[in-house]
Design a protein that fits this description.
Shape: globular
Strand content: 15-25%
Number of helices: 5
Strand order of the largest sheet: 2-1-3-4-5
Order of helices and strands: HEEHHEHEEH
Radius of gyration: 15 Å
Structural class: alpha/beta
């Protein structure tokens, strides 16, 4: 695990924050080279598949010219949801490092743990809590801002 890659994921999370998207950023690394990156774009693209991890996996597969991302590490600022955790498993990513735990849809330990389901053909190593405070702080600030905007609209 290299902290610099989680810091880069945080930069992408900030990019989605500036776009008024839930601030999640992701990078995929192979042999010490970033081969894919992503940030949430569900609102701007109006597409439920536009999660940071999905964007990064798609880029990495194109760059490496294979869907099998063995030998890759994924760094993401928020624990992956069921869709993204499933894609990570399907892509055969070796290791996942995430920042904040997600108590509402986290699928590598918080709500469920897909690595505990018997019979899957791949089980990535998972390490959570990397730069947890920075990741969590960005999310808290985003949702605080959203609540304030919603409250202001109601009071008009």
């Amino acid at each position: 695990m290299k902290q610099e890659y989680m810091e880069l994921a945080l930069k992408y999370a900030n990019k989605s924050y500036k776009m008024d998207e839930v601030p999640v950023g992701c990078v995929i690394v192979k042999d010490d080279e970033v081969v894919g990156y992503g940030y949430n774009r569900r609102e701007s693209k109006q597409n439920p598949l536009e999660h940071a991890e999905m964007m990064a996996i798609n880029q990495a597969a194109k760059k490496l010219k294979t869907w099998r991302l063995q030998g890759c590490d994924l760094y993401v600022t928020l624990e992956p949801c069921p869709m993204c955790a499933g894609a990570i498993i399907q892509a055969r990513i070796d290791r996942v490092f995430f920042g904040a735990h997600d108590p509402k849809s986290g699928s590598f330990g918080s709500v469920m743990d897909l690595t505990q389901i018997k019979g899957l053909n791949h089980y990535p190593e998972i390490k959570g809590g990397i730069l947890n405070e920075s990741s969590k702080e960005l999310l808290v600030e985003f949702f605080r801002k959203k609540r304030k905007q919603t409250s202001a609209k109601r009071n008009v």
